[in-house]
Records
---
Amino acid sequence: GAGVSQTPSNKVTEKGKYVELRCDPISGHTALYWYRQSLGQGPEFLIYFQGTGAADDSGLPNDRFFAVRPEGSVSTLKIQRTERGDSAVYLCASSSNPGSSYEQYFGPGTRLTVT
Amino acid sequence: GEDVEQSLFLSVREGDSSVINCTYTDSSSTYLYWYKQEPGAGLQLLTYIFSNMDMKQDQRLTVLLNKKDKHLSLRIADTQTGDSAIYFCAEGHGSSNTGKLIFGQGTTLQVKP
């Protein structure tokens, strides 16, 4: 079956611009996670959705970052007033086990470059 | 706080065994994972071990867990050039409010023919 998909695969934007990154989870998965992976580092947790609600947004670095999942399926990560330090690969993962780290399936990521 | 540490680089010859090590700090971790990341590809779950186990074997992969020392290792037998990748150790919780994973910084495995 189809895995987690993310669009776009690459995004180049200028400093100060607004960007949206999209994640399509595996069908039927109620849990959705966003992680950020900087060059040479492991992924860092950003936010977790259970259904439509953000159950844990403790990893969002500041209020320029926001994510939504209005219908409990597709999620969009939104970054306002982008900064060069936001450049990273943004990974999405989904799971059928809400609140459990067990078996999270990752998408290929969106590589964001802020110039 | 939660922290996961790994050595950054390992080089082996094809056919040898590789051992990648990891230490973690959260004693309440329920699951410990090994993920593989190849260039341009997403994270692939290789294997995991439940915290009440001390060993798990899955074909060429052996995971050893020393819960007392909070030390996890991944042994790859008969390492092949296709095993060249970055390997991430991660800890997680089987049942919590979030299920978020805490990753190490990754170990780059280089396999020489």
Note: Chain B touches chain A at residues 4, 30-31, 33, 35, 40-45, 48, 88, 90-106 (CB under 8 Å).
---
Amino acid sequence: DTAVSQTPKYLVTQMGNDKSIKCEQNLGHDTMYWYKQDSKKFLKIMFSYNNKELIINETVPNRFSPKSPDKAHLNLHINSLELGDSAVYFCASSPLAGREQYFGPGTRLTVT
Amino acid sequence: QKEVEQDPGPLSVPEGAIVSLNCTYSNSAFQYFMWYRQYSRKGPELLMYTYSSGNKEDGRFTAQVDKSSKYISLFIRDSQPSDSATYLCAMSGNFNKFYFGSGTKLNVKP
């Protein structure tokens, strides 16, 4: 059973489009995260939700909007995609805020 | 200054060698320390998780934390070609935010 899953795995789209990435965890964790990993492998946190409540909102353009319908799901919607948004986006979850995190397989977004 | 510093490598070793991977950090509030392994085009996989200072061993892996020096290490004994990956350190304090190193790329040659 996949612990943290993301869809889609690959996403190729044009500039200006709007797209969504979905994440689900079956670990029973309370906290979920979105990270962006650039071409140099640097992982940067974007958002964190604890039990459906937004608790971390880093300096991210407001074109990015997370949504947590329940504590097992955290989606990321991106409006007006730009070339610089091309990266791998990882979802993660942890049993408690600040504790060890478990990552999904990533969504490789390419904006052309 | 970055919160977490990690040598990007690449680090190339022969099979069977002992590998030492390190990170330094600046924030004395960090108390949870993690090491992740990331294979190419995969998500980071949690290897080791330690709280505060001390050592933790799991099979061929040993994690060390020296809070007085703000320095953490991951040792891999009897390294195997399958250990070839990028290793990321991560840490957090009494808050929800994690800080990651930029990763060290390890290549274990058969």
Note: Chain B touches chain A at residues 8, 32, 34, 36, 38, 41-46, 49, 86, 88, 90, 92-98, 100, 102-103 (CB under 8 Å).
---
Amino acid sequence: NAGVMQNPRHLVRRRGQEARLRCSPMKGHSHVYWYRQLPEEGLKFMVYLQKENIIDESGMPKERFSAEFPKEGPSILRIQQVVRGDSAAYFCASSPFRGIEDTQYFGPGTRLTVL
Amino acid sequence: GNSVTQMEGPVTLSEEAFLTINCTYTATGYPSLFWYVQYPGEGLQLLLKATKADDKGSNKGFEATYRKETTSFHLEKGSVQVSDSAVYFCALRTSSASKIIFGSGTRLSIRP
């Protein structure tokens, strides 16, 4: 059973460009979470999605950031008009169901560098 | 609000030394508590967890006990190895939310 897949692993963008980060959850998992890790910091929650629904986006910046998890295909985190402050590692996690004892399994992350 | 505080690193130890990384939390209700480990260039792996007071999570020689009275979940290992060098994150999750709240991480380096 393959783990959580993220691609690309490394992404370089110039200021003003768009960044698209993809996450394929583990087989059978219908819950996806995105976290951001700034250099030398812990992970900060961004958004929680189920298939075709955004459940909690309380950690998403109000502008330029969006996320989706379509019925078919991977979850996408999209950052429009990137700025240098968006440089970070973005991690996706998935779980089979929602519950306090549920384990979130993390992908290897996408490291975004904005020049 | 809910938060996790863990000891700042870096922590540098010699091989076979005893390890303690302190972690305390603030949360409403009764959270689940976790330790995650991040090896260089990789994502996070769940190391151990505890879901209620007095539970002890253990894995790969690491242990942590959920102490409600002191709101703590300190990570311990009796004899560390060079391969344990990584960043360790303490984290919590409450029943009312699906997101995990992480501490800032503690970088551990083990000398041969």
Note: The CA atoms of residues 11 and 44 of chain A lie 20 Å apart.
---
Amino acid sequence: SQKIEQNSEALNIQEGKTATLTCNYTNYSPAYLQWYRQDPGRGPVFLLLIRENEKEKRKERLKVTFDTTLKQSLFHITASQPADSATYLCALDWASGGSYIPTFGRGTSLIVHP
Amino acid sequence: EAQVTQNPRYLITVTGKKLTVTCSQNMNHEYMSWYRQDPGLGLRQIYYSMNVEVTDKGDVPEGYKVSRKEKRNFPLILESPSPNQTSLYFCASSLWGTGDPNEKLFFGSGTQLSVL
């Protein structure tokens, strides 16, 4: 079963609204979680990292929350713009064979309409 | 400029013809990894390396080989490519696992491989 779950359906919102994307994980307690942006045909680009002891992290119009009880992270983009349209991926440090390796969710596509 | 360089950007080949996709990073990262990305399946890890001469299988290693003889290079080898290996491939590197507070992944620009 999938370790990390992101909504597979695209999120469509109007320009200026706040976009909220969800990342859920199961049977694990990651030390931190990361969010990446990916444009079509391009490599993912790092956006934010949040640690298990942090409830919230902000960077300009971006905000990430991390609820270790719910095993969930929320990624918010305020005052969204059409240029924010992309796929957003979350990644966890997943324990594997004695190491911790980054493991990605499948991503959620965000489409911001003008 | 800090970067991960992948080559080639596009590659069309035929079944069974061995190929290598190169990956090089200039950030002295210990961790390097290869992913493939297919529509609806997201990023799937093929192989990763925590350091020189240390490589481990990811989720989908079948049909692939890697080597890590030098810290900066991590080539992906397809000994006998098949059509089901047609995909978009990404190399990545990081300070992952070092305890550095900035353990983000840096990705290459991708290699679109088509196996006919």
Note: Chain A touches chain B through 25 residues (CB under 8 Å).
